[in-house]
Amino acid sequence: MAQVKVVLDEAIGQVNPNIFGHFIEHLGRCVYEGIYVGPDSKIPNTRGLRNDVIDALRKIRPSVLRWPGGCFADDYHWKDGIGDPAKRPRTVNINWGYSIDTNAFGTHEFIDFCRLIGAEPYICANVGTGTPQEARDWIEYCNFPGDSSLARLRKANGSEEPFNVKYWGVGNELWGCGGSIPPGDYAIEVRRFASFMRDFGDVGIYKIACGPRGNDPCGVRRDWVLEFFERMQSQTLSDGCRGRVDGFALHYYTRGAGGGGDVDFSDHEYYWLLHAALVMERLIKQVRTAMDVYDPCRKVGLVIDEWGTWHPQAKGDSGLEQQNTMRDAVVAALHLDIFIRHADKVVMTNIAQMINVLQALILTQGEKMLLTPTYHVFDMYKQHQGGTSVRVLVDTPKAGSDGEDAIEVPQIAGSASLRDGELFLTLTNNSISDECEVQLELLGLSIDAATEVKIEQLASSGVSDHNTFDDPARIRPESKVTTWDKGIVVLPPHSVTAITVGLK
Length: 504
Fold this sequence. Notes:
Layout: E1 2-14, E2 21-23, E3 45-46, E4 49-50, H1 51-59, E5 64-67, E6 91-93, E7 99-101, H2 107-117, E8 120-125, H3 132-143, H4 149-156, E9 167-170, H5 183-196, E10 206-213, H6 221-232, E11 247-255, H7 267-294, E12 301-310, H8 326-341, E13 346-352, E14 362-365, E15 368-371, H9 373-381, E16 388-395, E17 398-400, E18 408-410, E19 412-419, E20 422-429, E21 436-443, E22 452-458, E23 478-483, E24 488-491, E25 495-502
Parallel strand pairs: 1-21, 2-5, 2-13, 5-8, 8-9, 9-10, 10-11, 11-12, 12-13
Antiparallel strand pairs: 1-16, 3-4, 6-7, 14-15, 16-19, 17-18, 19-20, 20-25, 21-24, 22-23, 22-25
């Protein structure tokens, strides 16, 4: 048996809804086919955007959506994606297979999609092959309410009102595909770009700098952070603020051959991947601690704008497509629980990616669409948005593989939040084969045995089970309403559980 104690009066921080953010890139079938099919498509659409995808995403309340990349962002020139789609240039995608991008999906289409699904847009500006003026002009085009030439151009292209885009990235992965720039040199570029990336309205834009690569085995994460912030603050800026940033983005993928394939993996490889996912908690602490050296008041928020599973067979020439099993669902839940437990440190995250790429929430095939187990996790966890994260104490057995290379993980993990008189508790059973009886205790509160408890569980008979276009509902949550009954809950193996308890 495991014991889970929720400390109701020990608040960690508010769960920023942006923790439940998403990411799309011009990569494989993510944007084209996955989101945009064109207004003349036989697939039901709204101005070229798939209706089935829009309806599915609205249900999970996506908070923020990052675009156009990813590596694609630092070779993307935004003026290629505005105006008459038939007259837009056909450009070469140098990062993903040298495919041709028609630019039919550009700024207006992205904003339209965000509005249809209810997400705030997060645009990543081009630093690698772009200029400060290009970034500056993009913001003016999107946000300026006055009578400038760029505002007139936006209006001529169909949007009388400004887009009011708040979130802007200052490049992507500048340590790699964004330009292979050392952190000190990148800090100089950030100061230069950020100085000209003005508000142009009343939005109050939020500028996000590229942080370290979390998957770097050489341990340079801390050095990148320290060198970046040292150079950012090495001289007094004449304006005092314009060259600064508001967010700092870490990237970390749960990946590697040690985790096996997307569907075919051993028990050992299952635990290897879960162990890799749990590394995220250490990375958050490491990077935030390093940031605190120069930002002790935490004016710069920690963002994790790329995370998720990346299985070995998801190669670039295949569009990074992979299947999504119950193991991926557990990994997604582990990450979200970590972010919620560190609500005082993490202000935004974006899973990679939303559709047809890596740990996708949705897969499409022509007119067909299916929801993956990861989608269902986001649907189950949406109640955490805006709640107050509270401390959770877990006394749990270990689960893991045997042998010389044995791997152990906590069998039970989770997080909790309070909102509107309700406790919302999410838990994973990380054992591949064993169910677990969990004793729940709410410290500081006596619960009547008749108190109503809502339980939603995502489980399956096999950990490699997944939804297919022939069987799209094989894995989906099941719900029940019960009573407190001494706080005993049984969690099936490799499962995700959401529990709601009314406290009034």
